[in-house]
UniProtKB/TrEMBL annotation:
InterPro entries: AsnC-type_HTH_dom (IPR000485), Dimeric_a/b-barrel (IPR011008), Tscrpt_reg_AsnC-like (IPR019888), Tscrpt_reg_AsnC/Lrp_C (IPR019887), WH-like_DNA-bd_sf (IPR036388), WH_DNA-bd_sf (IPR036390). Gene3D superfamilies: 3.30.70.920, Winged helix-like DNA-binding domain superfamily/Winged helix DNA-binding domain. SUPFAM superfamilies: Dimeric alpha+beta barrel, Winged helix' DNA-binding domain. It comes from the Bacteria. Residues 174-191 have a biased composition (Pro residues). This is Lrp/AsnC family transcriptional regulator. Keywords: DNA-binding, Transcription, Transcription regulation. Residues 200-260 form the HTH asnC-type domain. Residues 166-195, 337-358 are annotated as: Disordered.
């Protein structure tokens, strides 16, 4: 939950919501195409986009699909002394191999995702050496993410719902893989172009670094960052997107959608029913992330609710009815220091508003 939220000074209308939904469907869609679908002018869409960026932290970020990019993801829980937790969280947010840095459980716990090449040796440096040696840490647990049921390329439903089925069909890029596609490396690519360009290479590093900053960076600026020609950049983007190796996410201050209460839910589920329960939870409107992990709890979820009462209702009426969930730990999220892209400085406050932060 962002500190100093702008929700009291900024109200989303249908155009804003349609723009956010459109960017989830195609983060690089031209404003002219979005405008045609929304029935407004290109200038209106561009103006709303700039306003949302400044006042609501809206940002499109380009990210590699971990499975196709050969990456492992570790969900790391770090218990720290309250005096050291915020400084440690800020330090973790600055690392290029982390995302999703959150302060939880009264500010004495940090939760982060660590990205590493697949293989135990590749993940040892941070998980087993750097973190335990840091002052102020009292406990560390690392959970390998085994399967994501909701999250990543699949957006939280709270960001969707503004566009009709026909509007969505007009916005989905032709290079997008079908949602039901098997993400295993053995699944056939959609075209010879995707077959040739499906894997990330060292030469893609500069491209991805630029897209993590801003997924809508122009071909010309991406060419300057990579040393490629704009035509090569365009071909590479097309190939990576067509196979699903690259996807685009949208960062946004969810308080503007009425979210005031967030929590991480750590669940232990009977293994024989893990897939059934996780699939069911992925359909719950309150959840933005559902993933299977290793560890004493084998399922984690991220809940977004309007207030504590709504969270209580969800826990007791929805999760409470699922007998396969043997244990449940609820950890309130107090602050997100880093989402999926690179961290940014504080947003410019509006006149009369507080000082919103990422």
């Amino acid at each position: 939950m962002a500190d100093g939220s702008v929700r009291d000074t900024y109200t989303l209308d249908e155009v804003d919501r349609g723009l956010i939904h459109a960017l989830h469907l195609d983060g690089r869609a031209p404003f002219s195409r979005i405008a045609a679908v929304l029935g407004v002018s290109t200038q209106t869409v561009a103006r709303r986009y700039r306003r949302l960026r400044i006042e609501a932290g809206l940002r499109v970020v380009g990210l590699p699909d971990p499975h196709r990019a050969g990456q492992a993801q570790w969900l790391v829980r770090i218990a720290a002394t309250p005096a050291d937790a915020q400084a440690l969280a800020r330090s973790l947010a600055r690392r290029p191999d982390t995302s999703w840095v959150k302060l939880a459980s009264g500010g004495a716990e940090i939760v982060t995702v660590v990205h590493a090449p697949r293989g135990a040796d590749a993940s040892r440096s941070m998980l087993l050496r750097d973190i335990p040696r840091t002052a102020g840490i009292t406990a560390v647990s690392a959970h390998l993410l085994l399967h994501t049921y909701l999250g990543g390329p699949t957006a939280w439903r709270g960001h969707l719902g503004a566009l009709s089925d026909e509007q969505q069909r007009r916005l989905v890029p032709p290079t997008a893989p079908p949602p039901e596609a098997d993400p295993s490396p053995a699944s056939p690519p959609t075209s010879p172009l995707a077959q040739a360009d499906r894997a990330l290479t060292e030469a893609d590093r500069a491209l991805l670094d630029a897209l993590r900053q801003d997924g809508r960076t122009s071909h010309a600026d991406l060419a300057a960052a990579t040393g490629w020609s704009p035509a090569t950049v365009a071909r590479r983007l097309t190939g990576l997107r067509e196979y699903g190796t690259l996807f685009f996410d949208v960062e946004f201050d969810d308080a503007l959608l009425g979210v005031t209460t967030q929590a991480l839910l750590w669940m232990a589920v009977a293994p024989a029913r893990l897939d059934e329960i996780a699939t069911a939870l992925a359909r719950h409107a309150e959840l933005a992330v559902v993933a299977a992990t290793t560890g004493p709890t084998n399922l984690v979820a991220h809940a977004l609710c309007s207030d504590p009462a709504a969270l209580h209702h969800y826990l007791t009426r929805h999760l409470g009815s699922l007998d396969a969930i043997r244990t449940l730990e609820t950890a309130p999220v107090l602050h997100t220091l880093k989402a999926t892209g690179t961290p940014r400085g504080p947003r410019r406050p509006r006149t009369g508003a507080g000082t919103p932060t990422e």
